[in-house]
Amino acid sequence: MIPMKTSSIFKSRWMALLWAAGIIWAAYDVASGAPQASTTNNSTNAADQPTDATGAPITPSDEKKFEQAVNGL
Q1: Which residues contact 17 (CB under 8 A, 6 or more apart)?
Q2: Domain coordinates of the chain in residue numbers?
Q3: Are the beta carbons of 9 and 1 closer than 8 angstroms?
Q4: What is the mean pLDDT of residues 60-72?
Q5: Cα–Cα distance between 66 and 60 in angstroms, integer?
Q6: How many CA atoms lie within 13 A of 51 on its CB side?
């Protein structure tokens, strides 16, 4: 996973600092990719309503059709 021997990383102080900076950069990159929580509640109704692939809201009849299709398998 590391492109060099782990024993040779910590022989040099500068290589250790570079390695640590890479780890911190990777952690920051992963953490910054997480979705941010929205502080506004303007779209709570739209977020609560499930939609299909086209963006249309899913109705109870759609759910029933899906359940019948799955049970038919």
Answers
A1: none
A2: 1-33
A3: no
A4: 91
A5: 10
A6: 8
37: left (phi over 0), alpha (psi -120 to 50) or beta: beta
pLDDT value at residue 15: 85
- pLDDT value at position 30? 87
Strand partners, 57: 51
Q: Please report the DSSP string for the chain in residue order.
A: --SS-HHHHTTSHHHHHHHHHHHHHHHHHHHHTSPPPP---TTHHHHHS-B-TTSPBPPHHHHHHHHHHHHT-
Torsion, Cα 5 8 13 15, to 10 degrees, reads: -40
In this model, does residue 27 exceed pLDDT 60? yes
